[in-house]
Amino acid sequence: MAALLIIGAMTVSCQSLVDDQQLANKDKVTLTATVSLPDGNGTKALTDPGDGTLKKTFATGDRISVRFKTKGGAWVKVVSEELNDGDIERDGKKARFTITLTAEQEPSKEDNYVTYIYPASIATADGMVINSSILSSQDGTLASLASNLDACINSANWDGSSTLPNLRLENEFAIGKFTFLNGASENINAQLTGVTIKVDNVDIDDRTYVITPPSGSSSFTSEPIYVALYRTNSYGATVTITATTATGTYNNANTIAITSEHPISPGKIYNISVKLPVVPTGAINGLFSVSSTKQVYFSQGNLQYTKSTSTWSFMEHQYNTVEINGYPYKDDYEDTDVVSLFGWATSGYDHGATCYQPYSTNGDNSNYYAYGNASYNLYDQTGKADWGYNAISNGGNTENSGWRTLTTAEWQYLFSGRTNASSFMEMLRLMIFMASLSCPTTRS
Question: Hey, what CATH topology would domain 174-279 get?
Answer without folding.
Answer: Immunoglobulin-like (2.60.40)
